[in-house]
Design goal:
Strand content: 15-25%
Number of domains: 3
Radius of gyration: 23 Å
Distance between the termini: 62 Å
CATH architecture of the largest domain: 3-Layer(bba) Sandwich
CATH topology of the largest domain: FAD/NAD(P)-binding domain
Helix content: 25-40%
Shape: globular
CATH superfamily of the largest domain: FAD/NAD(P)-binding domain
């Protein structure tokens, strides 16, 4: 370990870990939900519905909360978005439905749509009721690769139509980023696993874990043995900084650490440094920054190459980071990883600006931040090994699909983060729904 490095777990009192990784936003109580629902104008042609990628009938589900029909409210949500429970927790409602809310325009304070959505879906899940059922069997068998939001949404929609679905997932648990890649305080109490169980509860869906394209599976065999294939493979690897010393001890992928944190039964065992630097500006960068601070890091500095308005993370997410003591520095890019004793000791950055043509350039001015851990959070990309030799067309680092989410190969559809569009859970769910409808039509049902 390099001079000055202090990497260890158990920095905080035992009780602090439970508190720091509890629900970021506790559920609304009944009276709170009723009062909040009463704020809705129940607009005709509501702009909030237009802003929702899955088209949830928001006025309808809120009105049902107001009248005490929680099952009906939850069904309004889940018919449009089978992962409505997760999206209620992690969807950036502040830039989607709530930004479009008429109350936002009038008062600057929208109806808390996301909180109400959680209230309704949690109420249904608490009953243990499975409200969905399968249609009569079609005899068709469809492969879904990837048990994340896109894959599970597609599988559920196909199962409802009577198709037999086989889901293949490369990890040891289903759920995709909901299970492995979202901050623990956003998805507490094993909710991701409970939602997966709810989705599979419709029947007609087989789940095979530890099965990956390019390893146990080939696309040729899947096409041969199934009537259709849906690829919801996500983005399986992370971008590199491209700097010397990237393999130094203490230089870590944020995605990998978040997954380890999510799966750890005891947060106190996770090794965290005293001084953390996070490179990136999206939700993953915010999530790792906040969580290392909550694990006991003394200083956490997030550095992004452009301004606050260009960050992938919303203003709400940036505020969460700052409220947790994370320092965000803009207009700087990493140029050198500093080393001491074989491990990272800091990062040297160069200040940036836009040139006359609007392109990013360095100013030549530099500064160095000491760090005993550096987290890379500069985006993800397709895992090349999964798709090597498949014949699938790739454009701008994503699978090419048409308006029906069909790929360049007959009988193969794709959706979610692996295709162009918003890298959001709610958008991935919508892709899964759309692909299921397209597959169903292609099979003549």
């Amino acid at each position: 370990m390099g001079e000055g490095a202090d990497i260890r777990g158990g920095r905080l009192p035992a009780a602090a870990y439970d508190e720091n990784f509890a629900d970021l936003q506790p559920p609304l109580a009944r009276q709170e939900a009723v009062v909040e629902a009463a704020r809705c104008y129940f607009c005709y042609d509501a702009p909030c519905v237009q802003a929702c990628p899955t088209g949830i009938d928001i006025p309808s589900f809120i009105r049902k909360i107001q009248t005490g029909n929680l099952k009906g409210s939850a069904l309004d949500i889940l018919e449009a978005n089978i992962m409505g429970g997760t999206c209620a927790r992690v969807c950036p409602t502040e830039v989607l439905c709530e930004e479009a809310c008429v109350r936002t325009v009038q008062e600057g304070k929208p109806v808390r749509i996301g909180r109400l959505q959680r209230y309704a879906t949690d109420a249904l899940f608490a009953t243990g009721i499975q409200p969905f059922s399968r249609a009569a069997s079609t005899g068709r068998r469809i492969a879904v690769v990837g048990a994340g939001p896109a894959g599970l949404a597609c599988a559920h929609a196909l199962a409802r139509r009577g198709h037999d679905v086989v889901v293949f997932e490369r990890r040891a648990k289903a759920g995709g980023l909901n299970e492995h890649g979202i901050a623990a305080y956003k998805m507490a109490n094993d909710f991701a696993a409970r939602e997966v169980a709810f989705i599979l509860g419709i029947g007609g869906i087989e789940l095979h874990l530890g099965q990956a394209l390019g390893r146990e599976l080939t696309l040729d065999a899947l096409r041969r043995d199934h009537d259709a294939v849906f690829l919801g493979v996500g983005l399986g690897t992370t971008n590199r900084l491209g700097l010397a010393g990237e393999e130094l001890e203490g230089v870590l992928d944020a995605v990998d650490f978040i997954e380890e944190l999510r799966q750890s039964p005891d947060k106190a065992t996770l090794p965290v440094g005293r001084h953390i630097v996070v490179i990136g500006g999206g939700n993953t960068a915010i999530d790792i920054a906040v969580q290392t601070k909550r694990l006991g890091a003394e200083t956490v500095t997030l550095v992004y190459r452009r301004g606050a308005g260009e960050m992938g993370a919303t203003g709400h997410e940036q505020e969460i980071a700052q409220l947790n003591g994370v320092l965000i520095r803009h207009w700087a890019r990493p140029v050198t990883l500093e080393a001491a004793g074989g491990r990272v000791a800091g990062v040297t950055f160069e200040h940036t600006r836009l040139d006359a043509g609007g392109r990013l350039e360095g100013t030549g001015e530099r500064f160095t931040l000491a760090a005993d851990q550096v987290f890379k959070a500069i985006g993800q990309k397709l895992l090349a090994d999964e798709l090597a030799g498949s014949g699938l067309a790739i454009e701008a680092g994503k699978l090419r699909v048409d308006d029906e989410l069909r790929t360049s190969l007959d009988g193969v559809w794709a959706g979610g983060d692996a295709v162009a569009g918003q890298d959001l859970t709610v958008a991935a769910v919508e892709d899964g729904k759309r692909a299921a409808r397209s597959i169903d039509r292609a099979l003549g049902n």
